[in-house]
Amino acid sequence: MPLTSDETGSGAGSDPTARYPLRIVVADDAVLLREGLVRLLAEDGHEVVAAVGDGPALVEAVLAHHPDVSIVDVRMPPTHTDDGLRAAMAARRQLPGTPVLVLSQYVEVSYAGDLLADGSGAVGYLLKDRVARIEEFLDTLNRVAHGATVLDPQVIAQLLAGQRRGKALGSLTVRERQILALMAEGCSNTAIAQRLVVSSSAVEKNIGNIFAKLGLPPDVTQHRRVLAVLTYLRG
């Protein structure tokens, strides 16, 4: 079962950096990549409970096995467009909160927005070339399984390159936008402080300001960190 994200911290109820064996579903129609992932995950101590090659099979596997996390290619049969993404979202509708890490060949900001739309976290969106960076990939997989939201830095780079932002986002300071971008990458408060060379208390204060400016008051039924990132993407 995915761990519950906390309100302003790293995203997981326990230490999201801690590694533990995961039960995983792999969905990719490219046999070589699929089998390569299965082998990589097994060597890292995880159990691949199902390896499938199309969207409907992904939904069936998730509902049958209730994995700790699923790794899903965006483009799969039957249409080879966004079938993998849509299947992942269908699985999450039937099994709310089930963690999903989506892999894509290219940056599609709209895909990231669709994936985050339910606001429940435990999702990741990475470019496929990140898989070659094995430790980075395995760390991301672990964080998503813990309930974190992790976006590929290239998605963040595109957002920072000049996409239009709404009025609320426009009210954020440069520092607040930097922190929100790092939140979208899945960074914890501690990691953000280290990246920006500031104190943890300064990060917490800025995150509080972000929540206030985006109109996200404390609410036990929703995760403000995920909603802030979603607002950032939609902006």
From TrEMBL:
<dbReference type="Pfam" id="PF00196">
    <property type="entry name" value="GerE"/>
</dbReference>
<feature type="domain" description="HTH luxR-type">
    <location>
        <begin position="165"/>
        <end position="235"/>
    </location>
</feature>
<dbReference type="InterPro" id="IPR058245">
    <property type="entry name" value="NreC/VraR/RcsB-like_REC"/>
</dbReference>
<dbReference type="InterPro" id="IPR016032">
    <property type="entry name" value="Sig_transdc_resp-reg_C-effctor"/>
</dbReference>
<keyword id="KW-0597">Phosphoprotein</keyword>
<keyword id="KW-0805">Transcription regulation</keyword>
<dbReference type="InterPro" id="IPR011006">
    <property type="entry name" value="CheY-like_superfamily"/>
</dbReference>
<keyword id="KW-0238">DNA-binding</keyword>
<dbReference type="GO" id="GO:0006355">
    <property type="term" value="P:regulation of DNA-templated transcription"/>
</dbReference>
<dbReference type="InterPro" id="IPR001789">
    <property type="entry name" value="Sig_transdc_resp-reg_receiver"/>
</dbReference>
<feature type="modified residue" description="4-aspartylphosphate">
    <location>
        <position position="73"/>
    </location>
</feature>
<keyword id="KW-0804">Transcription</keyword>
<dbReference type="Pfam" id="PF00072">
    <property type="entry name" value="Response_reg"/>
</dbReference>
<dbReference type="InterPro" id="IPR000792">
    <property type="entry name" value="Tscrpt_reg_LuxR_C"/>
</dbReference>
<dbReference type="GO" id="GO:0003677">
    <property type="term" value="F:DNA binding"/>
</dbReference>
<dbReference type="InterPro" id="IPR039420">
    <property type="entry name" value="WalR-like"/>
</dbReference>
<feature type="domain" description="Response regulatory">
    <location>
        <begin position="23"/>
        <end position="143"/>
    </location>
</feature>
<protein>
    <submittedName>
        <fullName>DNA-binding response regulator</fullName>
    </submittedName>
</protein>
<dbReference type="GO" id="GO:0000160">
    <property type="term" value="P:phosphorelay signal transduction system"/>
</dbReference>
